[in-house]
Amino acid sequence: MKCLGSTVLLSLVLASGAAAQSFWYVDVAAPPGGDGSWQNPYDSIQFALDQPTTLSGDSIRVARGTYNEQIDLLGKEVHIGATSGPMMTIIDGGGLGSTLNIVSGEGPFTRIEGFTITGGVGQPGLGLTHVGGGLFLYQSSVTLRHCIFTDNQALMGGGIFSLGGNLNILTSTFADNRATIGPPGSPEDGDGGAIWAADSQILIRNSFFNDNIAGGIPLNTEAQGGAIFVSDSSLMLLGSGFDSNVATCNLSGGFALGGAVCAVDQSIVKVASTQFHNSIALADMARGGALYLDTGQLDLEFGWFTQNVAGDFLQVLQGEGGAIYVTDPSIASVETSWFVENQAQSMGGAVYGVGYYRDCEFIENQSRNGGAAYASWTADFGAMTFDEVRLLGHETSWGEFGQRDGGAVHGPAFVMKSGLYDNIAHGMGGGAYGAYLFDCTLQGNATYSMVFPAEIRGGGAHDCWLYDCVIFENTAIGSRSMGVFSYGGGVSSSFLQGCELYDNTADFGGGGVNSSLDRVTINANHALITGGGMYFTFMPLVPHFVTNSIIWNNGPNEIHDAGGVPTVTWTDVLGGWPGLGNASSDPYWYDEANHDYQLLAGSPCIDAGDPTVFDPDGTVVDMGAHPYDPTYVP
Q1: Which residues contact 77 (CB under 8 A, 6 or more apart)?
Q2: Using CA atoms, how far apart are residues 345 and 281, in angstroms rounded to an integer?
Q3: Distance (Å, rounded) from C-alpha 367 to C-alpha 401?
Q4: 98, 89 in Cβ contact below 8 A?
Q5: CA distance 346 to 352
Q6: Measured distance CA(435)–CA(413) in Å, rounded
Q7: Based on C-alpha coordinates, what's the Rg of the chain?
Q8: Tens-digit pLDDT profile for residues 443-471
Q9: 3-state secondary structure string across 335-399
Q10: Mean pLDDT, all residues of the chain
Q11: Do the Cβ atoms of 350 and 375 come closer than 8 Å?
Q12: What is the arithmetic mean of pLDDT over 409-434?
């Protein structure tokens, strides 16, 4: 009996739950006066929502067709689904306001699925003007699935405006939405071509944003987020794509921030498996061709950034961060991502500012300074860090705007366990300018100019700090017939410790110029004029020293002093050089021809360095880049 009673009670609960959810049907082709049944559907979505019999938890099923109406969910937590999908089922706001309005506290089970949302122009609300062309979301929740937002416009949030909203967007498309209109003479800026959000939680998965525009309004001073603008919000982008979005400001001296995404005011942005292509920030001050972050947090992995642009190379504009711009103070972590053929008008062809980049590829990006990256000089040293990245084939643009420095990296970035290959600067620092490099390889970089006057210095690096690096086959190229000379094929005006320099070339100082060396090996470099190994010029405020090093078999000579008066001590120099503890003996390398500079047993360079400095094994420091290792096997 007890078991029977429980079974009856369970049946009653299930029956009650089933009765709580009703299905209502809508067909624009149906005659007016329907009852919402499958046989006699309503002819309007809004009419279905207006009915007192439509309750939270109900489902409204909509037949194919174009529904010319603006919809307000009236606080009802319902599922509105198109039975034939977005290509066949369209809600057109007709230019009369926001196409969808979810503004009455609708809860997290609210869903809209399978529609094209179009023709929205936003509406006044909450003291704002023309917001949320396609959807106006206020302190409510909604999930959008398999929807297309297209040809909507507003001043803020051409596709969607969310204030205090909880928004989930799944497998949807946002195309040709614009945050570009407002009342005549409106002072507001055009922000968020597809989405504008503040104090909101946003999840976007497997969705695409293309050809959305923010800005371009006469008299506006700032355009933010060609596709998405968020303030004091959390934004998660998963498996999505951005293509050809634009943030643009027409006013002289104006700003364009984030061609695709702009996040400000403590926003937290998480991105995974997402592509940003051909987005543009265009203004006199353009920042972040794809993504702009100000005073927030970014966590990004498996991102693809290709052919994004900050600035306009046809005009004299200030463009920074062709792909990403991150302000200080912000926290940005980018891992296992690719940056290819992005451009910035002035600084940071791919990235600008601060951030930690690990296991990333930077390929053929371009800017006037910092072909791949420009680290903020106002932030702490190392606020931009590259860890196990590859920087390949970048170039600083050159011409009437003057000198271009830092072929790959410009500024006080930390670059660790990375490779800088085949980068070009039309000025100083073919690989890097002003950076700190640890355990890196610099190969095939160049700095050159045919324009007088120009300073051509540091084919591999200029004004850098290099530790345990291998620097080879770099070149500084001038034009002697035009009075443009090159200095430091490997490095110039830098500090080096534990490094190798070989097969580098310049007019003066094949290996380096005006640099200080500790435990460095310099071999087989070539100067077209003089100073095959090192070249020193007069610099009264910057004394240079060379210690515990080997300078051997460079051409046409090892060291040339043109008034720099370097202090050379405890160093092995072919042909000798005056100074305490210096030597001129074959260093006995393992394989000089193949640039294996490990010391062989019996080398005169073992324990021959400064007697007050010690190797890790506790013995007196050896000369050259590598302490003697009796167990070494190549």
Answers
A1: 56, 57, 106, 107, 108, 109, 110
A2: 10
A3: 12
A4: no
A5: 10
A6: 5
A7: 32
A8: 999 998 756 556 689 999 999 999 999 99
A9: ECCEEECCEECCECCCEEECEEEECCEEECCEECECCCEEECCCCCCCCEEEECCEEECCEECCE
A10: 91
A11: no
A12: 96
The tokens for 600 are: 């062989």
DSSP percent split of the chain into helix, strand, coil, nearest 5? 5, 45, 50
SS3 19: helix
Strands (E) located in 378-433: 384-387, 390-392, 395-396, 409-410, 414-416, 419-421, 424-425, 432-433
User: What percentage of the chain reaches a pLDDT higher than 70?
Assistant: 90
DSSP label of 581: T
**Taking a C-beta distance cutoff of 8 angstroms, is the pair 82, 67 a contact?**
no
Q: Please tell me whether residue 46 adopts helix, strand or coil conformation.
A: helix
pLDDT digits (tens, 9 = 90+) for 42-63: 999 999 999 999 999 999 999 9
Token pair, residue 36, equals 């919402």
* 386 Rama class: left (phi>0) / alpha (psi -120 to 50) / beta: beta
Which two tokens mark 19?
A: 């009765």
Instruction: Provide mean pLDDT across the span 510-525.
Output: 96
For residues 524 and 553, the answer to whether their CB atoms sit within 8 Å is: yes
Q: In angstroms, rounded to a whole number, what is the distance separating the alpha carbons of residues 224 and 624?
A: 53
Contact call for residues 497 and 475 (beta carbons, < 8 A)? no
Does pLDDT of 508 surpass 70?
yes
Q: Which two tokens stand for residue 117?
A: 């949302």
Give the 3-state DSSP-derived string for 278-312, with helices as H, strands as E and coil as C: CCEEECCEEECCCEEEECCEEEEEEEEEECCEECC
Phi, psi for residue 470 in degrees, rounded to 5:
-115, 120
CB burial string 396-428: b at 16+ within 10 A, e below = bbbeeeebbbbbbbbbbbbbbebbbbbbbbbbb
Q: Are 423 and 395 in contact (CB under 8 A)?
A: yes
Amino acid at 510: G
Give dist(CA 93, CA 133) in Å, integer. Answer: 9
pLDDT in tens, 266-308: 999 999 999 999 999 998 899 999 999 999 999 999 999 999 9
Q: Work out the average pLDDT over 15-19.
A: 36
Gap between the Cα atoms of 480 and 496, Å rounded:
29
Q: How far apart are CA 68 and CA 96, in angstroms?
A: 10
Closest CA to 344 of 317, 326, 363, 362: 317
Q: Give every CB contact of residue 87 below 8 A, 6+ residues apart in sequence.
A: 116, 148
Q: What is the mean pLDDT of residues 113-139?
A: 88
Token readout for 383 is 């606020």
Buried-exposed string 363-379: b where 16+ CB fall within 10 A, e elsewhere: bbbbbbbbbbbbbbeeb
